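Input:
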Amino acid sequence: MDFEPLGVAADLVILTVREGSLQVLLIRRGIAPYRGRWALPGGFVRPKEDLEEAARRELQEETGLLSDRIHLEQVATYGEPGRDPRGRVISVTYLALVPDLPSPVAGTDAASAEWVAVDEVLTDQDRLAFDHHRILTDAVERARAKLEYSPLAAAFCPDEFTISELRGIYEAVWGVQLDPRNFHRKATKTDGFVIPLGATTTRDGGRPAQLFRRGPAATLHPPLTRG
Amino acid sequence: MDFEPLGVAADLVILTVREGSLQVLLIRRGIAPYRGRWALPGGFVRPKEDLEEAARRELQEETGLLSDRIHLEQVATYGEPGRDPRGRVISVTYLALVPDLPSPVAGTDAASAEWVAVDEVLTDQDRLAFDHHRILTDAVERARAKLEYSPLAAAFCPDEFTISELRGIYEAVWGVQLDPRNFHRKATKTDGFVIPLGATTTRDGGRPAQLFRRGPAATLHPPLTRG
DNA sequence: GTCGTTGTCGTCACTTTGACGATAAGGCCC
DNA sequence: GGGCCTTATCGTCAAAGTGACGACAACGAC
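Output:
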């Protein structure tokens, strides 16, 4: 077999919810092409390295996060000839959902990495290098859809969270307001979504709230709705 | 940039519903590795060819189908080192949903291509070459899930179809029995799912049934359920 | 203690669901 | 034509789920 010269990259859409908005981790490119523009973190897959392994490695390099406990899933692969001016590069894109980190991003490239509101990035078609605008659009769309029928929202939360905090995730990702009372009913009654811990917290102010952790459910029955 | 020697393949999971069961198009491999074993159709992406373009080309080569009208979507990409004994090969997998073809498969490789029931293939871990068992599992899982919230089932039907035929798709893909009366109510009342044509057919026997075509909806509200 | 804030439980009208009866309208066989 | 089989389609009804919203609980701030 002989192959054309071609590289495979693992790119990451790392999302979090901070200050009530959905944000993505971007890095400022220090080298050509697209020098000075923002881009999704990522890098080439090494020989003998699995795709997901490469994604986890990049994730750790960029965020310093122990990637074991982070939700990471493959979203799509982009391979249009010409998408990278350096040559043929296939980009396998992964979506990572991380909790709001108390510490700032602490990766090796931390100096040039930054959380930016997704809405803000997507309003400007040319903010991102390469075809990253489209990649981000697709990944965010996937995340929004998955919140409905999967317990994924909890991946944005710390290990212990309140129902309000969970609701805040939905509101930020979907960009809607949800009724606290109905949301509380649905979240706590949906089988295997959240597990009460017995303890409470007052960190959100007001009456102390029950703390929960993620339940074992892989899909939500019934699904949560955006309306 | 220098690259390790590496190939990118577009592989296809082509599904149809025939005789009440979900079937997949497999080809018998004529050359090593895995000579004589069944495998998913596919082939290497050519220089200057987009991934989806490659998938459509393979689809046409294998089935002779004008791929314009065929539902084709990317499912996942597999790149584990060692998944292909010939060297590093990244497989970008596409899912194609085709109607039950009146003519037998008429591709260039028709002699070695065959429809096989998915259930039958998946019961035997070693029936397929490479990691195609896993790829097929993932693709079928995707198809099953998407029937719930997307109008995709209609992609298995000819242009004009009856509600019963549509129900037959769901029953075959999900492997369940659905109540004809409730299904009829949901399918016809879900906004934009199906459009009545006014004409009827008796091809299914019994009372003449209304003919429908696919509606414009991209997602189903409310979704159809498997129970 | 009062006030403001957030959490949690309840109520109620409305819709949706699933189970199933009933009838419609063809073909087939005699 | 008449019975009978098959599938299509409409209706009914109880149970469950949904969205809107009232009410009260339990904290901190002052």
